[in-house]
# Entry
Amino acid sequence: MINDIESILVSEEKIAEISTRIADQINRDYANTGKKLVLICILKGSLMFSCELMKRITLPVEIDFMKVSSYGSKTTSSGVINIHLDIKRDDMEEVDFIIIEDIVDSGRTLSHLVRYLSERGANSVKTCTMLDKPDRRTVEFTPDYCGEIIPDKFVVGFGLDYDEKYRNLPFVGILKPEVYGGC
Ligand code: IMP
Ligand code: MG
# Structure
């Protein structure tokens, strides 16, 4: 696996730092809201980052899961968001959601999910991403919490995959373009 990585972009230590910084912000922002705080882990990519955040949040918090896909080919978004696993709750107006993503690319997935949960009556919906590639935006979208802004490179590791592989790398690395036939 490691031979397919061009360079390490975000180290394990840096991800720990990012997680502490964002969890501290969340601990401040959601203290004494009187509502339920629910993190939504977007499967599969944000699994590892969601764990890092969760263990640093000191407020009472629930975790829920959604599974969505937007990718047409293996490295580019199709633009169509499919929800494969949805949350089931009857207390939406009591809930402050924070959607946790691995990376924001075109911005379509998160802008779609924010609209979707808001329309279902959530008290509030915010977004948190480990990585952001703002150069790739096709819709206007800014995450509420962002770990690290990165250049327009295809990255893998710490949850992020190429063709379902590399998710278990403990850091985020740039995938060698020859692995996916890019240049
Ligand atoms: P968006 O809807 O275009 O913002 O797509 C976000 C989703 O695309 C992420 O949740 C990832 O699954 C995927 N994605 C975007 N860029 C990368 C990347 O560099 N490596 C792996 N997956 C990526
Ligand atoms: Mg993803």
